Amino acid sequence: MLIDIHSSLISQDEQQNTWSDDIIKALEMLALAQKEGKHAVISNRPTLDKIRKCPHLSLSDRDVYNKAFNNFTKFQSYRSTVTKYIEVNNQYKTQRICSDSGKTVIKVPPKFFNDSEIVQKTILLCENTNDAVLYEKIAKVYLIWNNIKIQLACEHRGGGGSTIATEYSKIQQNQNRFCLCLVDSDKFAPNGSLGDTAKLIENQANSNKINAGLIILDVREIENLIPISILADLPELSQSQERQAALKVLKEIENNDLRLFLDIKKGVVLQNIISKSDANVCKFWENILHNESNILGRINIHCLSDWVCHSSSQCTCKVSLGFGKNILDNTISWLEKKSLHEVAKMVEPSLRSEPSLRSQWENLGQEITNWCFAQKPIRA
Q: Which of 2, 46, 120, 290 is buried most, with the most CB atoms less than 10 Å from its CB?
């Protein structure tokens, strides 16, 4: 994260030999975070000047603050790239979340940084580690789009079902690591109800614990964030008639919102929707399906008009087709072979027929940048 040392830590009329142990320890830990490239530390020039001359800090720690002093203008510009950051402030005895010029400022006392564990890389907690890989790629593409020249530092951690909720709750309670948790919404519509995993973690999340943040996707699942252009470029597509058919169907869907709530892995049959008791889901799909001529050709019009499944066995009204459970794994493998600049171009397609996922990638990229903001490690 971006961590700002407030001037209250070292008032200008205070002698260095009276700085508290909490302040010295915090300065040591923040120097370590900067030195190892796990977070980014800034302050104003007078404060940095005094810190870099502090005899209670080691030579290597003072060198870190000396570099920050010499790069003051560059480091100060970092503040404009985030919407959330940490402020170490000696005027507060407890943690507090404030708003300043449209930014969320998490104000903490020096004792918050009393152990090296808190300055380790931010944990990117997801339902599996491949999710974290894609999210980090999304954030790096966001940095390219916005010409932000910083590093991201994060530790990928995965869990599923109740496991991720338990892990997130534990991290919040311990308050010894920064963490950003991202989970699928499993919603069938924009205003639909959340899936079980998202509900569980939302219920266990404690907004008063400032060391961790939670993002529940606005779309159904992480696979809905994969652009059609990337799906079409996967090597596995040419090896599978099922995937070729699924891609054709996906391209034919005209409503952009509908694409965001399809089940990309399994596909969707009409019974999946009709069986939902959530009125918001039914209304969303019913309104859209009547205007999707290509979908109407694959479903029983009586099922749609009656909003009842008339199939005596398995539903055959195919709204969309599935790409298979390995589609995310295949995408990650594809991403590892592509430059970030190539990916950035593919997410913003030139064809009007293909919807852009840029807004979703921008929103996620900004939040991941907030939590995983870092600078290059300082080499001795």
A: 2
Q: Find, among 133, 88, 79, 120, the residue nearest to 370 by Cα.
A: 79
The number of helix segments (H) and strand segments (E) in the chain equals 17, 13
CA-based radius of gyration for the chain: 24
The whole-angstrom separation of Cα 12 and Cα 6 is 12
Alpha-carbon span 223 to 245, nearest angstrom: 17
Handedness of CA 278, 284, 287, 288 (dihedral sign): negative
- Given a cut of 70, is residue 352 above it in pLDDT? no
- The first and second tokens of residue 135, run together, are 């999210």
What percentage of residues in the chain have a pLDDT greater than 90? Answer: 85
Measured CA to CA in angstroms, residue 337 lies from 234, 243, 277, 326 at distances of 11, 21, 43, 17
Give 152's strand partners: 373
Q: Dump pLDDT digits (tens) for 286-328.
A: 999 999 999 999 999 999 999 999 987 899 999 999 999 999 9
Q: Is the pLDDT of residue 7 over 70?
A: yes
